[in-house]
Design a protein that fits this description.
The chain is α/β, with parallel strands linked by helices. Helix content is 37%, strand content 15%. α7 links the parallel β4 and β5. The radius of gyration is 22 Å and the shape is globular.
Length: 385
Amino acid sequence: MNLSKILNELGEKRHEYLNAVSPPIFQTSNFSFDSVNKLRKSLKKEFENHFYTRGLNPTVEILRKKMAALEKCEDSIIFSSGCAAITAAILSQIKSNDHIICVQKPYSWTNFLLSEYLKKFNIKTTFINGKNPNNFKKAIKKNTKIIYLESPNSISFEIQDLNKISEIAKQNNIITICDNSYCSPLYQNPKLHGIDIIIHSASKYISGHSDVVAGVLCANKKIIDNIFSKEFMTFGGIISPHDAWLILRGLRTLKLRVDQSNKSANDIIKVLENHPKIEKIIYPMHSKNKQIELAKKQMKKAGGLFSIILKTQNINKIEKFCNSLNHFLIACSWGGHESLIFPICALYESQNYKHKMPINLIRIYIGLEDSNLLMRDIEQALKKI
């Protein structure tokens, strides 16, 4: 389906909403029925009928249709956070005593879920270097149910070969899950490479304005129906109609925003790549990335998120650089209009990160500001170290 049609028309029944150009916010918890029989029929298929907003809401339904289409999937569920989507996806496929394979250095709360929380159910996770597909083969056990991927991940940007890994998984009757937040559906569609479940933090590019926390889970109809009737309805991680509407508003400019962020990031990287105070640039489409051919094969572009490693391990100098930036905010997340930095040195009191990430690594997100302004800002901050 045409991208413009998905973003601007799909799911929007304007003739039913007084021809309103912007979709209405159905800020209601409940829906009534003309007869007992209509109530009865609605209860049989709650995910296809407007019965109670905890299950399905018209505003959220529009967003659900758009996200499924963007990811080339049959259906999707919208959650109150990326964590809620991740948890529902994983719990839907496992039971006590099962085994999971996950790439190293996943998103922090994914890591906590897999390495700590699921221990109480005797569910074990093997964390592997995902760059080599053979590592997945070697890690498979008789009770392996899930292969969990982040391609690329959101700090050091390791990439996994989605086609080869999905083939390995299918040969062993294992479900594959991929967090696709880094690329957005515009620059990568894991479904086209055989991945079963695709996850997004919609707080990033999809909403695009740093005013919503949300998550998305996309898959085929069978998987979606199963998760809706069990994990989604049981744990209640729903998004509000108003937040769904804010994301719908953000989708109107998704392509413009992500393309601009990508262009500005690449312009800035070209200037920084030979800077004497920068040891390394980490970016999937960077010419010195050893995985660049795989990146080009799976991804259209890489967006506005990259990392740099400074040529110093002196924490005072690292913090001096960060604190000297005038047009970057020090914050987590990415994908909004504002440019951000996230220094790994801030995490070094946590054993989860100490010695796992270089202390001089700084993640940079390039937003929608003028790229020359941002470049000058980085250069003046580098001079101070």
